[in-house]
UniProtKB/TrEMBL annotation:
Membrane-spanning intervals of the chain: none
Secretion signal span: 1-27
Annotated family: Belongs to the peptidase S8 family.
Domain Subtilisin-like protease fibronectin type-III: 657-754
Positions of the Inhibitor I9 domain: 32-107
Stretches assigned to the PA domain: 380-456
Protein name: (rape) hypothetical protein
Amino acid sequence: MTYSFLSSTAPFFIVFLYLGSCHVSHGAQQATYIVHMAKSQMPSSFDHHSLWYDSSLRSVSESAEMIYTYNNAIHGFATRLTPEEADSLMTQPGVISVRQEQRYELHTTRTPLFLGLDVHNGGLFPETSTSSNLVIGVLDTGIWPESKSFSDEGYGPIPSTWKGECEAGTNFTASLCNRKLVGARFFAGGYEARVGPVNESMESRSPRDDEGHGTHTASTAAGSVVEGANLLGFANGTARGIAYRARVAVYKVCWQPGCFSSDILAGMDKAIEDNVNVLSISLSGPRTDYTDDIAVGAFAAMERGIFVSCSAGNFGPSPFSVANIAPWITTVGAGTIDRDFPALAILGNGKNYTGVSLFKGDALPAKMLPFIYAGNASNNATYGNFCISGTLIPEKVKGKIVMCDTGGNQARKGEVVKAAGGLGMILANLAEEGEEVQAEAHFLPATAVGEKAGDIIRRYVLTDPNPTASVVIQGTVVHVKPSPVLAAFSSRGPNPITPNILKPDLIAPGVNILAAWTGALGPTGLASDTRRVEFNIISGTSMSCPHVSGLAALLKSVHPEWSPAAIRSALMTTAYNTYKDGKRIRDIATGKPSTPFEHGAGHVSPTIAVNPGLIYDLTTVDYLDFLCALKYNSSLIRIISRGNYTCNPSKNYSVADLNYPSFAVNVDGSDTYKYTRTVTNVGGAGSYSVKVTSETTAVKISVQPAVLNFKEVNEKKSYSVTFTVDSSKPSGSNSFGSIEWSDGKHVVASPVAISWT
């Protein structure tokens, strides 16, 4: 499989590309396959599992070579085979599955303050040796090690528990690692087997990041303190990652053609072996079952106590679009923060409309300029309004402000307008983009406006006999309200695999996020952009994911005994879904209140999460029982768990019994659904009473018992929830509510989502 970046949403829309084959052997097409082996079935005649793997491979192909062998994320190997060889290998003893890989594409000065992680709350997460001994592993496009965000000034020795290393390669020496950047590896075997050798004139065959995405995510999670951080003067301030005292280890698994699952699995395999504490993965893959490679690798990480945070995807606002939905993964959607970069579109009729821009350069003349719609200045009758390269007629554009419709790379449109002689640009959203606008470091004075303003401006430029306009860049503003707002691009539920597990889990900052950047590309990512910046501002669930990775490291530093499920529980049950005035978080895609299908439990609130009162914990066996409830057979369970686990035929397994911190009910004919949960007391002795809310009389929620009394820390109490629903509601209907436990000091909240199928 190949995975995709979940990155800045405008230039990096995600597309699942199912690979064909390009290498040919003896006239037969080859592809890369990931082979899962039952390690426990290795014959005694072999001294090591790798010898057994090699023998199994040789039995079907004398020429095939192993790309990787896997010891931790899975038991098995990756290789190139013809379809016939793959079928033959599947019949060999000890082979569980042979699956063709796919390709997926890659999906802060302000956010720590926005999250409440300022100096006033420093005591909640003290700078102890524990916090600086934690290592966050980032699977992405690599690292720009010279960035100040990875300075090791003030750091002590590398933790003795760390087993990783720094790999040298093109434009990268082992000496570039330090006490902050403790590990850097790269994985190109799957990429090179599929595509051919890395073109080292275009990208570095090493951990070096030539794309920017990996440097941005790594510094968001754990970047060191950098004063005076900004992008072209915007968002100026002191930048720091969320867990800024933690160490960073990078695993470069993504290359220009994409991210191949054999490389991703190899990166996860090494990260587990290296002993990372948190894995941050801003990639997504297929959503067919829980045997996808990231899910399988994450299961192995979870067993080792490693918290795995993944981006939810940038496929919003479509329903059922959420990715990385295995229940042992924490799935993160994206919201805005309280900072913006306004830029005015001023029209000749006296009307002004606010958009956003990161343009830095000479302002337009202090007068109104001729204004033209790109569709009326184009040599392309079909796509002229989009300002595509080569479509604008210079004689009609020169000296004017040009209105372009959004779609595709926004910065490139400005490049096209400027090349044709235009002086400025107004970008207008169409219905597909709605009101969501994202700031870009444009090449000329430009502003991007939402659909409503765009429709008005378009009507003006098309109907006024002498339209004029101007653009005024207004810089950086903070304390924007309301905030957060759910990003339209953030992928949504219901869960496309298991509707009774609510996903995404929560949301975190993911819009217009400032973080470190590569020195190999300008802020737009375009080859023609010769500007070089130390920090860049981009958007996507790729940006929200490392926020939660950093928060997990902070919680782990205070509660080293907590499991990954306990950390997620603390983040979810303390998340908020209303503003201070009591109104619910708004969804920018609809302008209406967001629901748990969009925001999960809500927006992270780390200063409360450190002391959640109660937690919902989960063990490996709990997840295996969940797979039994899904009727997974022994082979599928072995792919995921790498071990022999047999579902008890006499036991009644239920998805409703997975001890998850949220509730999702898929109404499929019955009118009563019963769920059970167990909470662990982490907040001292106390008595918790339950409060239930349901937004409609069509759903009645009953909790037994209604009071939970705890005498000591780590004491466990169970309760049951009965949902009585009107099963006659039409298919596609949804209803929401909540279940909250409180002892007067803590509020332990769980969202409820009901859907009728």
